[in-house]
Amino acid sequence: MITKKKKSSTMKFLEKHIGGPLKLGMLIESIRLSDEISQIEFAKKLHISPSHLCDIEKGRKVISPKRAATFAKILGYSEQQFVRLSLQGILDEAGIRLKVNLEAA
Q1: Partner of 42 for a Cys bridge, out of 12, 32, 55, 89, CB 3.0 to 4.6 A?
Q2: What residue numbers bound the domain in which 58 lies?
Q3: What whole-number distance in Å separates Cα of residue 101 and Cα of residue 105?
């Protein structure tokens, strides 16, 4: 079981390692690379085009919370974390300086 404190320290470690806040595109790219899957294969798995996947990974496209939740389900990861990163990306792109924290309803 991962505690809230453990999640927080893991996120801090990742952000320190990458030199800034974790973005959803970075997370998706990391998952793809760690699974050693090509962009073409991974895009098929997510039901999107390879060019769209590339845009997501490079931060040129922001993913909606609904799509983020769908990606999390497909990949077997935390919907809460994917949705949080999606919402944070939307706020960041809009220049709104707020930090997103989610909890289950």
Answers
A1: 32
A2: 23-94
A3: 13
